[in-house]
Design a protein that fits this description.
About 45% of the residues lie in helices and about 20% in strands. The protein is an alpha/beta fold and about 180 residues long. About 40% of the residues are buried.
């Protein structure tokens, strides 16, 4: 049995990426041990060299890294602000990598992003895929979910093409993690 950790890189209480994460996690085979975490539980000051020198690495960066260590694979959904990761999530990644640079070592990752627009947060996906590789992760699949409010209603993907793509990519991810 594989242990899968899921989290959305958003600090919004109404995040569409949390909704997408819930859908993806619920689609996993029943023999997977799944856990979702809320990144808001890992509140951190904004990263800066001076802050690190004066205060050291915050305990929450260590806690986040240690949570990730317990799992074989990750499903991460990310949002996009101005063509990049949200400042909140980027800060969490920055601090965690200061605690342990290879905090994603050996982790297989399904990386997805939803946006209300047609771009499907493709720019943040591209950035995260590169960054997660630097930190030792292996991004097995990516999913760009465009026009979220047109394609996702009442917790259900209503676009048949996206539905087929999600099933195919989750199947590949499951095969890679079994």
């Amino acid at each position: 049995m594989k242990n899968i950790l899921g989290f959305a890189g958003s600090n919004s209480s109404s995040s569409i990426n949390v909704q997408l994460l819930n859908d993806l996690m619920n689609r996993l085979p029943s023999d997977y041990n799944r856990k979702d975490i809320n990144v808001l539980d890992y509140d951190l000051p904004f990263y800066g060299e001076d802050v690190e020198k004066e205060q050291g690495i915050p305990e929450n960066a260590e806690k986040f890294a240690k949570e990730i260590e317990q799992y074989d694979a990750l499903i991460i959904t990310i949002n996009e602000h101005n063509g990049s990761l949200s400042a909140y999530f980027k800060n969490l990644i920055d601090w965690t990598s200061r605690y342990k640079h290879q905090f994603l070592a050996g982790k297989k990752i399904f990386l997805a992003a939803a946006s209300p627009g047609q771009g499907g947060a493709a720019a943040s996906l591209k950035y995260a895929k590169t960054a997660f590789t630097i930190f030792g992760g292996e991004v097995v699949e990516t999913l760009s979910f465009p026009s979220f409010y047109d394609n996702f209603e009442n917790g259900i993907v209503v676009n048949p093409e996206l539905e087929k793509e999600i099933d195919s990519k989750l199947n590949t991810f499951a095969q890679q993690t079994s």
